[in-house]
Amino acid sequence: MHVAIAGNIGAGKTTLTKLLARHYKWKPHYESVNENPYLDDFYTEMERWSFNLQVYFLNSRFRQILELRESGKNIVQDRTIYEDANIFAPNLHAMGLMTNRDFTNYKSLFELMENLVTPPDLLIYLRADIAKLVSQIHKRGREYESSISIDYLSRLNERYEAWISTYKKGKLLIIDVDNLDFIENPEDLGYIIDRIDAQINGLF
Predict the structure, then answer these.
(1) pTM above 0.85, yes or no
(2) How far is CA 100 from CA 23, 108, 109, 191, in A?
(3) For residues 135 and 121, is the Cβ–Cβ distance under 8 A?
(4) So which residues are the catalytic ones?
(5) Cβ neighbours of residue 137 under 8 Å, at least 6 residues apart?
(6) N or C, where is the chain less crowded by C-beta within 10 Å?
(7) Class assignment of domain 2-7+34-128+139-179?
């Protein structure tokens, strides 16, 4: 069983990954944020470091997927390789923060990897409005995220919605988290788990 959680920056992916791993006894796989050597530089100078950052994410997530396949365990994954290629890299290119040459190179690399990647059995998309994202980002207080603009988050949200509307690689569960607090409120977490159970039962 491979469950992946998708969503914009601050949507709650990492927290929900941790909670679901504990509940279902799944092995969690997190986005390599703390080990990423480009994040600080990227948020300071996006145009200079966008390609480096995206290739790092692509490489680390591809490696992670291969490890997941070999492990044979039930896993829950924080963010997918598809988000890098369908949302973050195209957004940087559209904003003029990644050159045509770099974007073409990036797309070619992703297409090669995609042929070797098996999609998750279930994709959970955490839908959140900008106010919720900003609140969550401020709450966790990562210094390198302090310079993220509302315009940047809005552009990402638009791309997430466009991607999700055409997602056909496997089962999809959309959860609107604007009015949920699955950290502090057990009932909210229970609501999410009930919806996941209904999807998982349909996989067998």
Answers:
(1) yes
(2) 44, 12, 14, 44
(3) no
(4) 78
(5) 9, 10, 145, 148
(6) C
(7) alpha beta
